[in-house]
Amino acid sequence: MHIRRPSSISVASNSSTSTLSDGDSTDSESGSNDSGIEEPSLKEDKVQQIAQDFRKHLHDLTSSLTQMTEAAQYLTWRYQYDIGGPI
Questions:
Q1: What is the pLDDT of residues 40-52, one digit of tens each?
Q2: How many other C-beta atoms are found inside a 10 Å radius of the C-beta of residue 84?
Q3: Does the entry feature the keyword Nucleus, yes or no (predicted)?
Q4: Residue 59: predicted pLDDT
Q5: Phi-psi sector, 84: left (phi>0), alpha (psi -120 to 50), beta
Q6: Cα–Cα distance between 56 and 21 in angstroms, integer?
Q7: C-alpha span between 78 and 55 (Å, rounded)
Q8: N or C: which end of the chain has fewer CB within 10 A?
Q9: What is the pLDDT of residue 14?
């Protein structure tokens, strides 16, 4: 189950610093300059996670629709059987 967490970046802040979630670090903490190498990797990871979540959602939705279709077909058959209509 995916739980949405509120953004950790303050919208009202005018400074360029932001609040980081646990496990994140800033360049000043690590003592290195921003090389731009990690950012695309993080974006790719996030895109892959979103794509995976979407595929699971689509699979689950398809499964639910299939189950509802089968139930509707059975109920239609059962109704027609009970009233003596064409089967």
A1: 788 999 999 999 9
A2: 7
A3: yes
A4: 98
A5: left
A6: 26
A7: 34
A8: N
A9: 46
How far apart CA 32 and CA 81 sit, in angstroms, is: 75
3-class DSSP state for residue 7?
coil
Tokens of 63: 């499964």
The mean pLDDT value for 57-64 works out to 98
If you search the block for the tokens 């009233």, which residue do you land on? 83
Q: Which two tokens stand for residue 2?
A: 């995916």
Per-position DSSP letters for 13-50, written without gaps between them = --SS-----TT---HHHHT----SSHHHHHHHHHHHHH
Tokens matching residue 9 = 């970046």
* Least confident piece of the model among 31-40, 55-64, 69-78: 31-40
Lowest-confidence range among 12-16, 34-38, 82-86? 12-16
